[in-house]
């Protein structure tokens, strides 16, 4: 399989995440990921995009950008938001902010689990600030081919 790059931009509204989730699910399935792994990929995408929409986008017109890279071994998803839109207020997640979110995560709370889910279910998870003043979240899922020999 040749490497392919796909770029999408959606408005910063939860309404637009579901079609992207369906697209990623179909893509992952066609790449040969098992059904359970496809569900994991979709859940991670949903959490990362939801965080970008709720916490990292100035307004719906600016949007959230996604870059999806596929090859024979992996599916990589980069989600980029643009931050608050206020140059004085840096909206990206600092190391300290990540530690605070992790420390305050509680099983009884509905909030604060997205980063934990993305880190737990993806093979690689990276978060860093971008030049737009927002956050880039990169997750990678490796396609493990079965080495079973049929007898």
Going by CATH, the homologous superfamily would be: Histidine kinase-like ATPase, C-terminal domain
Strand content: 15-25%
Instruction: Return the average pLDDT rounded to an integer.
Output: 83
The CATH class name reads Alpha Beta
> Could you tell me the radius of gyration in angstroms?
16 Å
Q: Give the CA-based shape.
A: globular
Q: Output the number of helix runs.
A: 4
Please name the defining characteristics of this protein.
single chain, alpha+beta, Heat Shock Protein 90, 5-stranded antiparallel beta sheet, 4 helices, 5 strands
Overall description:
The protein is α+β, with helices and mostly antiparallel strands and 151 residues long. The protein has a single domain (4-142), classed as Histidine kinase-like ATPase, C-terminal domain (Heat Shock Protein 90, 2-Layer Sandwich). Helices cover 36% and strands 23% of the residues. It has helices spanning 17-31, 35-55, 95-104, 114-121; strands spanning 4-10, 64-70, 74-80, 124-129, 135-142. It has a five-stranded antiparallel β-sheet with strand order 1-2-3-5-4, with helices on one face. Strand 4 and strand 5 (135-142) form a beta hairpin. Helix 2 packs antiparallel against helix 4 (114-121). The chain is globular and about 40 Å long. The two termini are 27 Å apart. Mean pLDDT is 83; it is low at 147-151.
